[in-house]
TrEMBL record:
GO terms for biological process: phenylacetate catabolic process. It comes from Imhoffiella purpurea. It catalyses: 2-phenylacetate + ATP + CoA = phenylacetyl-CoA + AMP + diphosphate. This is Phenylacetate-coenzyme A ligase. It is an enzyme of class 6 (ligase).
Length: 424
């Protein structure tokens, strides 16, 4: 769709959204105080007149205080785990579910999925949106689904070898866990039948993509979404893999400075703020995702006209401040994978034994690199430390650990142990 037509559609849907949520108390009070109505939205720029929505707003209106439709119209409810506070719930009408399936189908097809394929879904099913969203997206394409769910890695491999799926859906870190487990079973991971993977649920680097592709001999595609907005399906990569195409007919995305809340220049990192234009049950207006990424508007070689976003480089709320320097775990990962012999399995430990922060990075290395020669290990530590300083701008103590000694995770990998919070 030409940009002018797309933006006209967005404006029409934004005005409709404002009208649809006007009766929701959270929005009604703000609209009344600032005299906002559909008459206030004359251009897309007028979205800045609307209030932000945050995770805390959802918690304050727990469990379903942001509903924009009667409870009887709901078809499904998902939710977060609540590991960082009170769990939050998100609701869907039947039409929401149809749209969600379509959005997932779009990026799956853009990333090579065909109706004749079979896909193994190794995401969790349940309140978590990932498994169900991708499941129905695969079915929308016409492909077959193996709902293997998360965990039991040995069984995942047995299923792959028995049913020959071409596709794999899971977190990127779990894809590497599958490769490790196959090797432990005496199976060459590259001999597994999968040939493409769609990975999401956690930030990952371009270096990690290369690692996954080399380990499993597949093409790896990135996608992005979050349950508060709809789940997976907000954006996804095409065959060019030059950023994730945002589904702009359904989402209006801003990229703002997280401190000033002003727009950042195009191509500069900022916090993604997303408005869901078509969701019925629980539409979000200017939801602060806390995810840091970049937006690009130049044309893509694939021919799609939608704006693209970079991979998520971190979150404003898992960002570490080390002696005044902002550091994201993904920066540490990028540094590690620049050094031959390291793996993407690591743990960052931050402490404050005195008045200054100290960072220790535990790093797994490949078995053939591990040595009992102290000078070789010390040299490797120094190379890793230099790369961390180059990429992240901090000095870190590097501890090399044996292969498979850092805990593996089925879902989102836990990369940071901040002991400063314990001491405080």
């Amino acid at each position: 769709m030409p940009r002018a037509e797309l933006e006209a559609l967005q404006l029409e849907r934004l005005r409709s959204l404002v009208e649809r949520v006007a009766h929701v108390p959270f929005h009604r009070d703000h609209f009344a105080h600032h005299e906002i109505g559909t008459h206030s939205i004359r251009s897309l720029a007028d979205i800045r007149r609307l209030p932000f929505t945050t995770k805390n707003d959802m918690r304050r209106h727990h469990p379903l205080g942001l509903l924009a439709v009667p409870r009887k119209d709901l078809a499904r409810i998902h939710g977060s785990s609540g590991t960082t506070g009170k769990p939050t719930f998100v609701a869907y009408t039947a039409r929401d579910l149809d749209i969600w399936s379509e959005l997932c189908a779009r990026f799956l097809v853009a990333g090579g999925l065909k109706p004749e394929h079979t896909v193994q879904v190794a995401f969790g099913y349940g309140l978590f949106t990932g498994g169900f969203g991708l499941h129905y997206g695969i079915e929308k394409v016409g492909a077959a689904v193996i709902p293997a769910a998360a965990g039991n890695t040995r069984r995942q491999i047995e299923i792959m070898r028995a049913l020959d799926p071409e596709g794999l859906i899971c977190t990127p870190s779990y894809a590497l866990t599958i490769a490790d487990a196959a090797r432990d079973l005496g199976i060459d991971p590259r001999s597994l039948p999968i040939r493409l993977g769609h990975f999401g649920g956690e930030p990952w680097s371009e270096d990690m993509r290369r690692e996954i592709e080399e380990e499993l001999d597949i093409s790896a595609f990135n996608n992005y979404g979050l349950s508060e907005i709809i789940g997976p399906g907000v954006s996804g990569e095409c065959s060019a893999r030059d950023g994730m195409h945002i589904q702009e007919d359904h989402f209006l995305v801003e990229c703002l400075d997280p401190e000033t809340l002003e727009p950042v220049p195009e191509g500069e990192p900022g916090e993604l703020v997303i408005t869901s234009l078509t969701r019925e049950a629980m539409p979000m207006i200017r939801y602060r995702t806390r995810d840091i990424a970049r937006l690009y508007r130049e044309p893509c070689s694939c021919g799609r006209t939608t704006m693209r976003m970079s991979r998520v480089t971190g979150r404003t709320d898992d960002m570490l401040i080390i002696r005044g320097v902002n550091v994201f775990p993904s920066q540490i990962e990028e540094a590690l994978l620049r050094v031959e012999g390291t793996t993407p399995h690591y743990l960052i430990e931050v402490s404050r034994p005195g008045t200054l922060d100290e960072v220790h990075v535990k790093v797994e290395i490949h078995p053939e690199i591990f040595s009992d020669r102290m000078d070789r290990m010390q040299s490797l530590c120094e190379r890793i430390s230099r790369e961390i300083h180059t990429v992240a701008g901090i000095r870190a103590h590097v501890d090399l650990v044996e292969p498979r000694s850092i805990e593996r995770f089925v879902g989102k990998a836990k990369r940071v142990l901040d002991k400063r919070n314990i001491q405080n």
